[in-house]
Amino acid sequence: MACILAVAEQRENKLKKIAYEVVSEGKRLAEKLGLEMKCALIGGSVAGLADEIAQYGAKDLLIAEGKEFERYSVMPYTAALSEIVKKTDAKIILLGATAMGKDLGARLAARLKAGLVNDCTGIEVDNDNVGASGRSPLLLHPMYGGKVWSYLKGAGQNPIVITLRPNVFSKGERPLAPTKAAIEKIDVKLSDTDLRAKVLELIMAAEGAVDLTEANIIVSGGRGMKAPENFKMLEELASALGAAVGASRAAVDAGWKPHSFQVGLTGRTVSPTLYVACGISGAIQHLAGMSSSRYIVAINKDPDAPIFKVADYGIVGDVFEVVPLLIEEIKKVRG
What we know:
9 helices, five-stranded parallel beta sheet, seven-stranded parallel beta sheet, alpha/beta
């Protein structure tokens, strides 16, 4: 029977935040379309994660595990996931729009000759267009840096692969009574082609660093910070808020922060609950990467800066005077 397949992303045998969002959205979509939802989990030793992800609707779990899946590599993971798709007859495959999800989703779509919609920010059900296979999901996809929003839907009988933007889709509530997952282990036969590349080492970010795409709060600095050492002030504000630190392209191009910190069209696209822009003018390139934030606070001494046009709250003032006061007040509030 056709189903929706939600792919739960993990790293080092720990579920990523996006896994809960993908599974929760998969459950909601399955209920609207009248389909079953199944969940795929791939990794070195991930069976122990089954009951945790089951709390968010993943009651039927298909697992591919083994040494060859300990570290993410696109070819083995594609082979495993395509095997799971064939076994479940999945018509919709949901992944997170993370570095791994976009990489894996594109390769999977090519192998299955499936449709692909990357960085989806909304899913609706088309009640006015019911075909032989039932209702079709309408997928909201931002284009041209968020200036245009398009609705897309799958055509034909082939599956469709969809990656969901992190922090946009809500995580479901855990049930009061624990839920057990029904587990089916998938035996994947990998060819020499699947194993032609091997990941030898992963260089992880510094301990305690927050992934920008998963952060609920982001404090970003731009050209107005004037020098790299001034980012220490933003790091202190981020620490007080429990936030991640980001940067504009101007700050990255100046060498003040690595490219992994860059928010914008050529950097990371983020959707936090709170985005604090410090000394950022608000160039179109930057706005494209953060305009979907739920609340935007801008601090800039130029009252005509474009950032104020998208900000929910604006402070016209010197960032070097405003930020220390914010840090002081936040520490008072948080004790």
